[in-house]
Each structure stands twice: as C-alpha cells, then as structure tokens.
C-alpha cells in the first residue's frame, strides 16, 4: 500500500474528507463531500413551493366572496352601528356631524330601557311578544322536524319521495302568499270559525282580540290583575309581562311552524342518513327500545345538526318580519309587534334611524347570548367550558 509522509493513503483520504466536512459546516455550506457534484443542498425556506402556491390559490378563490361580504355585510353593519349613536333622520349624510346629524352616544340605547315613553313601551312589548313567540316556535318546529325526519328515514315507508316533497313544499312557498291565505282562513267569518261552528264552538275573533292566552287562563280560574303582579319591570307591570301570546300571535306561530319545519326536516334527514349502519345494528342486538335508541344513540350523534337547527330557529324567530307586516302590522293593540318590525317602523316610518338601529343591535346581542346558552346546554358535561369567560386564558 502506498504511503504519504509515512501514513497510509487511506488514512490521508479519510482525514481529508473529514476536514472538508468541518470546513463546510463552519462556512454554512451543506455537509458532504466538498466539490462533489451530487452533494445535497438544504431546501430553501420561502414563499415558494407547493404550500405557497396552495395558499395563493386559496386566497384567490375566496377573495371575491370576502370582497362581497365586506361590501354588503361588514361595512353596512359598521355604518348601522355608527347611526345607532346618532340622531340621524335621513335628511343628510349620517357621517357629516353638525349638518342635521349629532352624536348622542348611548342615548338611543338608554331610551329603550330607562326612559319612560312610547319608545320604551313599544320596544318592551315587542320583546315580550317575541319571547313567547320564540319559546313556542323553536321547540315545536324542532320536534316536528325531527319527528318527520325519523318517519321519512324509515326504509320500510313507501312513497318517501312524495311525502318528503309534500312536507317541504310550504318552505319554498312565498311567505307573503301563505300569510294572506291564513288571513282569510282565520277571519271572523273564515273557514276555521265555520269549522268550529259545526261543533257548537263560537270561534274567537282572531285578529281583533288583544287578550293574551295566559290572561285568559288566569281569568278562567278567577285571577285578574292581582296585587302580586303590580311590580314594574322596564316600565311594564309583571301582569303585562305574563299576558302570553294573543290569539293573533298564536295564528302566526302556527303558520311559522308549518312553513319552516320542512327545511329543518331535510337537515335532520341528512344527519340521520350519515349515521353508521353498524351502530343501529349494535343497538338492535342490545335489545334497546325505539325510545332508548333515540335518546341514547341517535340524538347524541346528531348533536351538530340539532345545534344548527336550534340556532337557525332562534335567529329566524327573533328576526320575524314579513308575517308581522302582512298580518296586521302589530295589531291588535301591539300584541303581534316584533323588534324587527318595530325597528323598521321606527326608521322608515318615524324617520328615527338612530333609535331603529339601536333596536336592531339589542336584538343582535340577545341572539348571541341565546346561541351561546344553547350551545352550552348541548355540550357534554365533561367538555363544557365557562358560559361567559371573563379575563384571559389560564
């Protein structure tokens, strides 16, 4: 074996390679044999590559929708929020202070809760009406939609397509047209009172009687405006808060449940058809009844769909407008008044846009609170977080 300076040639070669690696590391170059054509280079970190191109493509596709939402949703919400702090009456630009528009701060909001007057009386009455409206519509339409979905999801049922179309048809029909038909059906000489007359029942004056159903129930047992119900809450007595929905509002409740259950039925059907078949088979082998299967198997697995249906129901009921507009505009005696219609009336009827915008944002806060509350209720106990966090994360 040849040697150089008394050392074997292999040792010299190995030591030279190690020296080249050390030199490469110290200089920031990639390790390996110095000068080797096949030496690896460290990948460059930057905005290129597959991930970078995917990010650019993603933003390119969503940019039109972001622009549309910004122009027609985010910016108008910000403008409405600004108007709620002014006394703008629609004559001039709301953003030019001093020329018919003055900044009043929280006055429009405090007038709704703390100042005696017609504005607070109407707004509180609309809140009370909508409270009973939501309390009846959301549970009933959810239960009805789930029941229809369970019925139509049965593979043994014949004509499922026909029934699915029939139940969904009222949801795609014009709400104005349906409300007009209901006005004829529930008029004093309408078909409903005529049908009740066959059984000797004198039907109520549906859109003329302003008494609430709870007041009628209290009067039936001899209770009429007792002393314990005289205390005031936001300018209304407790007896007025406990009036319950009027018969006119009851008609609207019936109409809305009938027209919205079909849409929520389809959501439940989609969730039920997505359930694994193995779970149903396992439940059948365990000998569970239909009620036990529904309570312990089906409902826990369709919680996302249940949350969606209840959330959409809460949003829709607190924003009810078209049925109120067609079926009396709040009559009789304001018992069908809703915050959405009152906000419209205050803005475009009385030209008090600041007060109308304030009503809209109060309803917005109510919807957020109720949505958060029902999400807390539907979450499993071991996964629940504080209902309303105050402070930072721990």
Automatic annotation (TrEMBL):
The chain crosses the membrane at residues 61-85, 131-153, 165-186, 247-272, 301-321, 351-371. Keywords: Cell membrane, Membrane, Transmembrane, Transmembrane helix, Transport. CDD domains: TM_PBP2 (cd06261). The keyword RNA-binding does not apply. Residues 127-374 form the ABC transmembrane type-1 domain. It holds the Pfam family BPD_transp_1. The keyword Transport applies. It comes from the Bacteria. Its main location: membrane. It is found in: Cell membrane. Residues 1-49 are annotated as: Disordered. Residues 28-40 have a biased composition (Low complexity). It is a multi-pass membrane protein. InterPro entries: ABC_transporter_permease, MetI-like, MetI-like_sf. Belongs to the binding-protein-dependent transport system permease family. This is Carbohydrate ABC transporter permease. It comes from Terrabacter terrigena.
